[in-house]
Design brief:
Blueprint (H helix, E strand, L loop, with lengths): L8 H9 L5 H19 L2 E4 L1 H16 L11 E5 L26 H8 L3 E6 L33 H8 L5 E5 L6 H7 L2 E4 L20 E5 L2 H11 L17 H4 L8 E5 L9 H16 L3 E5 L6 E3 L5 E3 H17 L19 H12 L2 H13 L5 H22 L5 E5 L15 H5 L6 H6 L3 E8 L5 E7 L5 H15 L12
Parallel strand pairs: 2-3, 2-4, 7-8, 7-11
Antiparallel strand pairs: 1-3, 4-6, 5-6, 5-12, 9-10, 11-13, 12-13
Helix pairs in contact: 2-3, 7-16, 10-12, 10-13
Length: about 500
């Protein structure tokens, strides 16, 4: 990577504002890195090279005229390809939206542009954000920059891989059950899922509407604070958006956390956890204690992780999530029928029902079909009470467990993922094993809580280990300060992948 693409987003913004770098030089450096490394990583579905250069020139011109520029002026940012923009395509990595051009931009895209960010392109994802490895994409298979024979995680795998490989200074992802935090953990970067409602979902293509949340993927906690400040806030176009003031997360980042109380959920540290990951988190807890924090054991009984006789993992939270999320997906994806927009079958059809059926069969991939069918089943007459209603009751119990835990601690520490990045194709034949890759992240979405994944070190084989910090509603500031404390002390700050040769 060149020196420019090694800079953090904060360093890049400061250098451009001070005239030490031009936005054009920064954009050129990232586009050159994309040209060189993208064939090996496959992080992007579409790159806006000409548009990015035009944006950069406009920013340089504004600076030369002495005009004030936004806090992200000239910082190259990538968007997950389920975030609408009125330029380029928004495909959700699906055949059914392969040529869809949104007539409007998402609130997050508007805010990034207003802050001066340069949008480099749209990143790959599991189709409609349904997956944990980015192998469900209809466009390409994204690879982990640390080892291109392994997955980058999902569903925001393209965004995490782009930041990790130096193909973007920062990126936006979406998180329905871990889709920001899990790929961030597997790719050695920082990923934040904000409190539900902290960031507007307007313009995010819906998967599970009561679970979805947009958040940043960055190189360190400072960059995460910078990006979150830019995108957070109330939006009247999103009825679930919280009317809460947005603090200056970056200004508060270095404020010491006195007497930080760390909660260790006993259910998350059983035999299901890989020994290397357990060791890394134990070491991290020791680091926090050396900084004056205290650790206390807490319980999240309804997020308990069990191990069966054959080593199969199970969890109430996973079962609950895959009822709630698929039910909402069944409803949200009903709009893709071949009539209004998106793919329509070219084959002969007998009637409109046949057209719907063939269009959806051709447009959706296997995993999306699986989740639509599961969601339709649990909402069907005679099964609603047995499945969906019961899942909603369990969801309430999961939230109650977190509320009780936070009476005795300020933040929880737990793994981001049960393993490091797994091999491409390793879990594709067994959907249940793939679903369990999110076993430590799903419960936060059910409870609407914020969580951030930060690097906790490397495994013996040189793969990143992710650690998750979890807090109460609207505690993003506390989580980012806790993340900053750790990364500065532990040396994991700006943990980056090695050069990947194209």
């Amino acid at each position: 990577m060149s020196g420019i693409t090694n800079l953090t987003a904060c360093e890049t913004a400061s250098a451009i504002a001070a005239g030490k770098l031009s936005a054009v030089d920064v954009a050129k450096a990232y586009l050159a890195a994309i040209e060189r490394l993208e064939p090996a990583i496959c992080a992007y579905n579409e790159v806006f090279a000409d548009r990015a250069m035009d944006q950069a020139r406009q920013i340089d011109a504004a600076i030369s005229r002495g005009e004030s520029v936004g806090p992200l002026a000239g910082v190259p940012v990538a968007l997950k390809d389920n975030i609408c923009t009125d330029f380029g395509r928004t495909t959700c990595s699906s055949k059914i939206l392969a040529n869809f051009h949104s007539p409007y931009s998402a609130c997050v895209a508007e805010k990034l542009l207003a802050a001066g960010a340069v949008i480099l392109g749209k990143t790959n994802l599991d189709e409609f954000a349904m997956g944990s490895s980015t192998e469900n994409s209809a466009t390409r298979t994204t690879r982990n920059p640390w080892d291109t024979s392994r997955v980058p995680g999902g569903s925001s795998g393209g965004s995490a891989a782009a930041v990790s490989a130096g193909l973007a200074a920062a990126a936006m992802g979406s998180d329905t059950g871990g889709s920001i935090r899990q790929p961030a953990g597997l790719c050695g970067v920082v990923g934040l899922k904000p409190t539900y409602g902290r960031v507007s979902r307007y313009g995010l293509v819906a998967y599970g509407s009561s679970l979805d949340q947009i958040g940043p993927i960055t190189r360190d906690a400072a960059d995460c604070a910078l990006l979150l400040r830019a995108i957070a806030g109330h939006d009247s176009r999103d009825s679930t958006s919280l009317p809460a003031d947005v603090p200056d997360y970056l200004a508060e980042l270095e404020t010491p956390l006195k007497n930080l109380r760390i909660g260790l959920p006993k259910e998350f540290f059983g035999q299901a956890l890989d020994s290397e990951i357990r060791s890394a988190i134990d070491k991290a807890v020791g680091t926090y204690k050396s900084l004056g924090a205290t650790a206390v054991e807490v319980s999240l009984p309804h997020s308990r992780i069990d191990v069966g006789p054959g080593g199969q993992l199970s969890s109430y939270a996973v079962a609950c999530y895959y009822i709630v999320a698929t039910a909402e997906a069944s409803s949200n994806l009903a709009r893709y029928d071949g009539a209004h927009y998106g793919h329509r079958t070219a084959g002969p059809v007998k009637d409109i029902i046949d057209m719907y059926s063939k269009s959806r069969a051709e447009g959706f991939g296997d995993e999306v079909k699986r989740r639509i069918m599961l969601g339709t089943y649990v909402l069907s007459s005679g099964y609603y009470d047995a499945y969906y209603l019961k899942a909603m009751k369990v969801r309430r119990l999961i939230k109650n467990d977190f509320d009780e835990a936070f009476k005795s601690c300020d933040a929880l520490i737990c793994p981001t993922s049960p393993t490091t990045a797994f091999k491409l194709g390793e879990k594709t034949a067994d959907p249940i094993q793939m679903y369990l890759a999110d076993i430590y992240t799903i419960s936060l979405n059910l409870a609407g809580l914020p969580g951030v994944s930060i690097p906790a070190g490397l495994s013996a084989s040189g793969l990143p280990i992710g650690m998750q910090l979890v807090g109460p509603v609207l505690s993003e500031g506390t989580l980012l300060r806790a993340a900053r404390m750790f990364e500065k002390t532990s040396g994991t700050c700006n943990l980056m992948a090695k050069m990947v040769q194209s």
